[in-house]
Structures are given as C-alpha cells and as structure tokens.
Amino acid sequence: MRLAFQISIPVTRAAPCVPRAALDRKQGRRPRASVARASNLTSSKKTPAPLPEAVDAVFIGSGMGALTAAADLASKGASVAVLESYIIPGGSSGWFERKGFRFDAGASMIFGFGERGTTNLLTRALATVGKRIATVPDAVQVRYHLPDELDIKVHREYDEFLEGLIKRFPHEEKGIRKFYGACWSVFNSLNCMPLRSLEEPNYLLQVFAAHPIACLNLLRFIGRNAGDIARDHIKDETLLKFIDMECYSWSVVPADLTPMINAGMVFSDRHYGGINYPVGGVERISEEIVAGIEECDGCSVHFRAKVKKILFDGTGAACGVKLVNGRTVSAKAVISNATRWDTFGEKGLVEAERVPPSEERFRERYVKSPSFCSLHMAVREKDLEVGMSEKEGMDCHHIMLDDWDEIETARDGKGTLFISIPTVLDKSLAPPGMHIFHVFTPSWVDEWEGLSGEKYRAKKAAMLETIVARLEKKLFPGLQSAIEFSEVGSARTHRKYLGRVDGSYGPVAKKKLRGLLSMPFNRTDVDGLYCVGDSTFPGQGLNATAFSGFACAHRVAADLGIIGSLPGPIDRFLTDLLSRQRLKL
Ligand SMILES: NC(=O)c1ccc[n+]([C@@H]2O[C@H](COP(=O)([O-])OP(=O)(O)OC[C@H]3O[C@@H](n4cnc5c(N)ncnc54)[C@H](O)[C@@H]3O)[C@@H](O)[C@H]2O)c1
Ligand SMILES: CC(C)=CCC/C(C)=C/C=C/C(C)=C/C=C/C(C)=C/C=C/C=C(C)/C=C/C=C(C)/C=C/C=C(\C)CCC=C(C)C
Fold first, then answer.
1. Which parts of this chain are annotated as the region Disordered (predicted)?
2. Which of 143, 106, 146, 142 is nearest to 374 (CA)?
3. Could you say which of 106, 247, 402, 515 would form a disulfide bridge with 255 (CB–CB 3.0 to 4.6 Å)?
4. pLDDT tens track of the chain, all 585 residues?
5. Are the beta carbons of 356 and 341 closer than 8 angstroms?
C-alpha cells in the first residue's frame, strides 16, 4: 500500500487501518518490534520510509498535538505524513541523553493517563493505534514550598490534599470546598462525554442531545477564569495567592487569566486519573505513537524534515508543503503543529499576503509566554543530606518561591523554581545511586540575545550558581557537592531544539479574556489549512494538545468525507456562524 501511495495521485483512501501490531496479536503472531529505543539522539527509525508525494493529511511537526491527530486520522484509514524538523518525535515532550542519564527536555508532569472516563487523552491517543505504555503513579502531584511558610502537598488522594489545605486555612474551609468543587463540576461534565471537535456541528448537536446538563454546565464555565470563581468563594489573600500559584505552575499566568475549563481539568484529573510517569521516560509516549502510526498503511513519520513553506493551489487553498531540501508533499489537508507565530508570523510558513485578518485578532488577544531556563543535573544520592526515596518522603515534583512579588517577574533564577526528579519514581533513568534533577525557571529570550559565546556561557554558569544555592539552602542540603555534571539550557536552547518561537512555552492571554471562548479551534481562515497543538483550543499541556489533536482529526475527517457530517452548506453555515460569534468575543 505504501508503494501505491508513491505512484497513485490523487490519493485513494485505505480501508480503516488496523495497526499491524494489533493484527499480529489477533492472529497469534509476535508483533513487530516498535520504534527502537534511541540510546543516543539519532533518528529513532531504523530504515526511514520514503517521503510520499501525496497524502490525505500532511503534518508540520510531531508534538503531541500532531501525533494524536495523525494517529486518529491514520486509525480512520487516512494516509498521513508527519514531517518533523528535529531528529526525534515529541517536541516539548522530547528528551536527550548524557553519559547514561536520560533527561526530559520539557514535559515531565503528565496528566491524561487515567484508565476511566473520557479525559484520559494520552491513554486514548496511544490506544487509537493499538498502543499502551507502563506508567508509575505519583502519590503527590507537586509539593509547594512558598512564602508565608506555606508548605502544601497536593496528594493524589483529593481528601488528603483538602485536609492539608484546610488545616492551614481553617477559616476558609467552605470557600476551599466550593472552589475545588466547581473544578470537579467542570471535570465531571467533560469526563462523561466523547471529546471531539467543537467546530463540527453534527458532533455538537449529538453531544448536546446525549448530555444536555453537562453541556449547559460547560457553557456556564467556558467564558470564565479560575480567578473569578476563586474570588466568588475565598477572601483570604494568602490563599488567593496560593491559588494563583496553583494556576501559574502549569498555565504560567495567575488565576485571573487562567480559563476555568482548564483549571477544572488540571485540579481534578490529578486526583482522578492522577499524575503518572511513563516508565523509561516521557519520550515513550511519542515513540509508541510514532510506531503505531507507521504500522498503518500509507502512513509515515519523517525526521530531519523541516518544512519551509505551505503551498497553495489556484483557489488559494493549502494543498501541500515544501521542505527546506526542496522536496514537496501534496495533501488534501495541511496541519501545522508549529506555533501560531511560526505558522502565520513574519518569516512564518504562510507568506504575508495570505495571512487572514482573523490571525490579527489572535495576536490582539494572545502573547507568547516566556520560555524557561533549564538546569539538567546528574546528582549523587550519597552526597545529599536528605532522603531521596518516596519512602523517605521525597516527592518527584516541587515548586519553590521565596517572595510572592517574584512569582511572575523575577529574572536571573530568582523567581519560581519548578523541580522535577523523575528518578524518585523510575530508577532506570540513571545509573544506580544517581538522580536526575530537572530544575527550570521562567526566562525570556531577550535576556540571552546578543551575547558573545563567553558571556553566554558565563550567564548560564551564573544561573546555575544562583539556583543551586537557593535549592541547597531550602530543599536539598549538600546539593552543590553532589552534582556529578550539569547542563544548562537557555531560552535560545528551547528555541533551537523545540522549534518554538522565542522558545516560548505557549500562548497566554494578553489581557483578561472570557475564559476559553476566543481560543481558536483547528480550522483556520485559509481553506485546507488547520492548526493543532497549544496555539489552539484549549492551549498548553500534553493532554490539552492531545485534545486539540482529537478535535483536529475529527474536523479534518469530516472535511475529507472520512466520517459523516451535516450536508456541506449547512455544516459550513453553522461553523461560520459559530466562529463569527466567537470572533466578536
Ligand atoms: N506537562 C509538562 O510538564 C509540560 C512541560 C513543557 C511543555 N509542555 C507542553 O507540551 C505542549 C506541546 O505540544 P504541541 O503539540 O503544541 O507542540 P510542540 O511544540 O511540542 O511540537 C511541535 C513540533 O513541531 C516541530 N516543528 C516546528 N516547526 C517545524 C517545521 N517548520 N517543520 C517541521 N517541524 C517543525 C518542532 O520541532 C516540534 O517537534 C505544549 O503545550 C507545552 O506547553 C508540557
Ligand atoms: C460550542 C461551545 C463553544 C461550547 C459548547 C459546550 C461544550 C460542549 C464545551 C466543551 C468543551 C470541551 C470539550 C473542553 C475540553 C477541554 C479540555 C480537554 C481541556 C484540557 C486541559 C488540560 C490542561 C490545561 C492541562 C495542562 C497541563 C499542563 C500545562 C501541565 C504543565 C505542567 C508543568 C509545566 C509542570 C511543571 C511542574 C513541575 C516540574 C514541578
């Protein structure tokens, strides 16, 4: 079938794909080995598939958004080609290895791996292509070390978490229960319905008919932010600052700017599906999805395949892509997993004269969040003066802040520190007796621009010194002398290796918006061109981008006639009506 795609244009669709591994299992054969584990950073595929000339859907990038959408489309029988500029898949959920230590490049606190309900979007993304990976449950999502001696553990058990918080703020017991109760109300409404494209009217009608109360409840919250709901119930200013930090720790904006739908997902799923670390590292998720996609006929994933521009036909519709090496792939749907700025911005994938006015509205509402400065450290356990096992009370994830005023603004390693020590949960990531520390703090690309090589290295060394001193003083006595080796990644490093504009973590609201209402869905105003990933509804996060992937695949499948939808003109009328209403918001 793969051969057929090289010679037959226009593309004919394959029968709905049963991934070969699943078929092998069904027929009692041993499944083919999935993507070989890369022991160093070489492309994870042994014999790269030839670049197809034409497919149903071509993806620019292989972040979690693109991989989920590609897997879902592949499982529906579409032919897909995923083009990734880097040498491994996963984007922000990628990794690198040094001297036998395996470091997460970005994502490390993983939501969406539950077994129940419909919000377990990473479990589902893998399952679309017949895959599943082992995970280790984390007993504590995060331990906060905050000003005002606020030391709070977010236990996997909801009641245990509430008990700790109420003990610290007994006068706010009612408010605490109401705020987190509202989060559960959002989550329960989402978790009972199939999660698909909100810009596909047929699905919307069906979901409203099947779950009217849940949909009305979501409509109640979709235009609101977590800070508004918190202030409805809570008066204590320190507790409100804690809730700001609860939001900031994943949305990088305070509660006032954090959509309530997203807060509902995060603050409930951590106690429902829980936080679970993939055995062998976060990259296992993308490795397995890639393996699953490639087991589907007519589907392939390509590395070192940087897209230079999007191609258009005579009607102005997107019809393919051109790579930096000059090769082209034509497609009925072009799907960009690059950020909105990398897709539509200056020097973006779409030439300036084709950028639709709606993109201007996006830029009026959203700005690039800062990037991070990341410290990756290999640490000797014996030299630390603190127990490092779960039994000794060590947690995998910590957040540390010394001064409330520095939550968002502090530079040079003085602000919020995010700490992830995955070897607390999975010892296979480092040699015996050793730990991996990934510590990161918000950082802006402008701080790192225009420096000579020497000054750049000196700035990295200064960051390391400041952050290690803070950690040693407050959390990990002995850390300085326990470091075997370290590597610092700046905002420039993130820009280079993650292919993200300014190394940004993602779009954040420029000013207070009405919740998620103005976040764009997957269609763009250019025919045939879609976006997926954190520049689309509902924003940042691996499981959030997995949602955008499922939604995108659903809309594309309806547009390509792979799944049923309302008759064309009605579908178009209703979708346009919805997007026009949203644009006014
Ligand atoms: N849970 C956590 O701890 C955590 C931490 C960090 C990031 N994240 C989140 O992970 C999410 C990432 O998902 P995403 O789907 O939006 O994308 P992504 O940024 O992870 O992936 C995009 C991919 O597209 C590739 N790419 C960009 N331009 C290209 C081009 N021109 N040609 C070919 N390839 C190109 C990049 O190399 C990258 O691999 C973000 O929301 C981020 O906030 C989570
Ligand atoms: C039509 C209309 C508009 C409407 C109607 C109604 C309805 C039906 C609605 C519906 C809706 C929906 C479906 C929605 C959905 C949503 C979702 C899914 C969401 C999700 C979300 C998620 C999220 C946000 C997540 C996130 C996460 C993150 C970001 C994470 C991060 C983390 C980090 C950074 C960590 C760090 C720390 C340390 C290391 C310590």
1. 24-48
2. 106
3. 247
4. 222 222 222 333 444 444 444 433 333 333 333 333 333 343 444 577 899 999 999 999 999 999 999 999 999 999 999 999 999 999 999 999 999 999 999 889 999 999 999 999 999 999 999 999 999 999 999 999 999 999 999 999 999 999 999 999 999 999 999 999 999 999 999 999 999 999 999 999 999 999 999 999 999 999 999 999 999 999 999 999 999 999 999 999 999 999 999 999 999 999 999 999 999 999 999 999 999 999 999 999 999 999 999 999 999 999 999 999 999 999 999 999 999 999 999 889 999 999 999 899 999 999 999 999 999 999 999 999 998 888 888 999 999 999 998 887 777 888 999 999 999 999 999 999 999 999 999 999 999 999 999 999 999 999 999 999 999 999 999 999 999 999 999 999 999 999 899 999 999 999 999 999 889 999 999 999 999 999 999 999 999 999 999 999 999 999 999 998 888 889 888 888 887 676 666
5. no
- With a 6 Å cutoff on the Cβ, whether 422 touches ligand 2 is no
List residues bridging with 441 in a β-sheet: 373
Residues 6+ apart with CB under 8 A from 97: 38, 39, 40, 41, 103
> Residues 381, 435: contact at Cβ < 8 Å?
yes
- The interface pTM score, or ipTM, of the predicted complex is 0.93
Residue nearest to atom 39 of ligand 1 (CA): 91
Architecture of the domain defined by 2-94+281-366+520-583: 3-Layer(bba) Sandwich (3.50)
Mutate to test the pocket of ligand 2, among 122, 266, 577 (most ligand atoms within 8 A of CB): 266
- Joined together, the tokens standing for residue 61 give 């990038």
Tell me, yes or no, if the two domains 2-94+281-366+520-583 and 370-503 fold the same way. no
Q: Which ligand is nearest to the CA of 397?
A: 2
**Alpha-carbon gap, residue 270 to 143, rounded angstroms:** 13
Per-domain boundaries in the chain: 2-94+281-366+520-583, 158-275, 370-503
Pair of tokens at residue 313: 């036909």
Asked: is 370-503 a CATH 3.90.660 domain? The reply is: yes
Question: For the chain, how long is the longest CA-to-CA vector?
Answer: 71
Cα dihedral 177, 183, 189, 190 sign: negative
Q: Is 489 in the pocket of ligand 2 (CB under 6 A)?
A: no
* Dist. CA 555–CA 571, nearest whole Å: 11
Nearest CA to ligand 2 atom 5: 219
